[in-house]
Amino acid sequence: MLIVGAPGAGKGTQATDLAAAYGVPAISTGDIFRANIKNGTDLGKQVQEITAQGQLVPDSLTNELIRDRLAQRDVTPGFLLDGYPRTVGQVDFLTDLLAEQGASIDAVVQLVTDTDAVVERLLKRSEEQGRVDDTEEVIRHRQEVYATETAPIIDVYAARGAVVEVDGMGTVEEVAQRILAALEAKGFSPAA
Ligand code: AMP
């Protein structure tokens, strides 16, 4: 499964809970990049500036990272990707990678949110957590990148009948309930 939504739509929190409900790992490319930056790895050095500016890391780097991650054992029962794919090029890569194993994405949870409300939420978070790099300019830029680069991937998956649209406004619990209900309605029940 994939979870897709604008930056600040609450994807990360929902991804963790949803993956736990389905008994699969939640894989966040953003978290992997942040861990690499924190540990000062070569990859971290390559992506530090790019992520701080709210740009997308080049597909070549991101796709190889996903190839490695999806080669690990824990994804055998399935997986939930959070923050990947983010471009149509990444969708094509993922589709081919999974097809090599006779697999495909079953469902794409799309969290639908209001941009102004989300920007406000992010500004509050950056103040509370002292994320000095998250200026309003960077936050707005991330929303624009989402609209131009990432939103088109939803059309690709919608054409495959895989998109499950969920209202992402409300409390964490409300949204989590909506996601589970929408997936069950599509025939995807969590692990017993
Ligand atoms: P996130 O926590 O998912 O918002 O990711 C944080 C940052 O990591 C993004 O703003 C991008 O700079 C980078 N990033 C994460 N996932 C991707 C991806 N799939 N493609 C390109 N860049 C990504």
Describe the structure.
This is Adenylate kinase. Its EC number is 2.7.4.3. It catalyses: AMP + ATP = 2 ADP. With 192 residues, the chain is of the alpha/beta class. The protein has a single domain (2-185), classed as 3-Layer(aba) Sandwich (Rossmann fold). The chain is 56% helix and 10% strand. It has eight helices and five strands, in the order βαβαααβαβααβα. The chain has helices at residues 11-22, 29-38, 42-52, 59-69, 88-99, 115-128, 136-159, 172-185, and strands at 2-5, 26-28, 80-82, 108-112, 163-167. The longest helix is centred in the last third of the chain and has 24 residues, at 136-159. Bound molecules: adenosine monophosphate.
Compact overview of the structure:
Belongs to the adenylate kinase family. The protein has 192 residues and is α/β, with parallel strands linked by helices.
List the helices and strands and how they pair.
Elements: E1 2-5, H1 11-22, E2 26-28, H2 29-38, H3 42-52, H4 59-69, E3 80-82, H5 88-99, E4 108-112, H6 115-128, H7 136-159, E5 163-167, H8 172-185
Parallel strand pairs: 1-3, 1-4, 2-3, 4-5
The structure holds adenosine monophosphate.
